[in-house]
Design brief:
Layout lengths: L1 E6 L2 H13 L4 E6 L9 E2 L7 H10 L4 E4 L2 H5 L2 H7 L3 E3 L7 H4 L1 H11 L6 E4 L2 H9 L5 E5 L8 E4 L2 H13 L10 E5 L4 E9 L4 E3 L4 E2 L2 E3 L3 E4 L4 E4 L6 H21 L6 E9 L5 E7 L6 H8 L6 H7 L15 E8 L23 E5 L2 E3 L5 E3 L3 E9 L2 H14 L13 H6 L4
Parallel strand pairs: 1-2, 1-4, 2-3, 4-5
Antiparallel strand pairs: 6-9, 7-8, 7-9, 10-11, 10-16, 12-15, 13-14, 15-18, 16-17, 18-22, 19-22, 20-21
Helix pairs in contact: 1-10, 6-9, 7-8
Amino acid sequence: MRVLVVGGGGREHALSWALHRDSPDAGLFAAPGNPGTALLGTNLPIAATAIDELVAAVLQHDIDVTIIGPEAPLAAGLADRLRAESRAVFGPSQAAARLESSKAYAKEVMRRAAVPTGTSATFTDLDPALAYIATHPEPLVVKASGLAAGKGVVVCASRDEAADVARAMLAGHALGEAGSEIVVEEFLAGEELSVLALTDGERIVILPPAQDHKRLGEGDTGPNTGGMGAYCPVALTTEPLLTRVRRDVFEPVLREMAAQGAPYEGVLYAGLMVAADGTPNVLEFNCRFGDPEAQAILPALAKGATKHLLDIARRRWRPKKQVLAATRAAVTTVLAARGYPEKPERGAAITIPDALGSDVLVFHAGTAKDAGGNLQSAGGRVLSVTGLGAGVPAAAKASAAACERITFEGKTWRRDIAWRELQRAGAA
């Protein structure tokens, strides 16, 4: 079997690691991959958004299954192109991927499907947006409707701040095309939770929920990022809560997508805000594995979990369980470059000790090899360091200890990943 993982970040290294663990004899390819995926298979120097070249590579290398990691190639229709060539692919169609590529569209789907979510309004013109903001309760949230690499959501403490953000997106084109349409939404209080489900459009298997840490600084301060860390399992996720998420979120959304002629296949990520009364309100949908959630969820699963992905892609999935439980705890800490997220520095030499321990996994994200074969930083989020343990406190300790030992100039990281769970466990 030959499997291609599209993408070159920490998520794609984690997917490649899980596939290699489950199917060590499979031929693994990554496009473009990174120095971490190169240790597991063959990197193809093709950008994740080079759709024509990727399709050609699948045919040239006779790839059996393609797993698409990032959102951009899904939004560009890579899955459709591969299916048109009768190639098995894990990932939704371009039409179904609009659940992520257009927050305005996702809001409309949720409205039609009666999915619990914050009230909102969508705008392409500045004046009506400012008029709506002027009467909106504080705080409020302004979102770029399009893909903005995790930087298109701004929680605004005041209407004045929201108006400035709207001006920057709609008039100042701060986020380019992604911000040409915005969603103004009510602020929802509670605790955030990432719940991912595998689906073939009808059947649903829920993965171990995770919690992401989006803010740059400890104590959830500073600017939003693509994610500074994640952990699972999360004690907040009781069986009744997951039953509600299945019944009130995943099932109605899948029915609505099918009714619109865009059946959803792949992994559907629901970013939730769980209210004090236990109501799971949807903040957003992603049409792929989260990053860094994948680096925590995949190692927490039992060996063999990637067979679900391969079977969904080959349209022969017959799951026997409705939920895949975590078999161990995993805490992932992101080591970022100095200047991230605005202007990350590149080119810093990286040293990863050989003996970090059997309870640590290091996933490459923004790394590259220089002309001499030395590892260096090449992006904002450089490495994802996953600690494993019987419980979250032990996994957090393993992750933090490894982060201390990995070195590169300007290393930036949060030392409080999983802080809510540690407080719940009395280990904070």
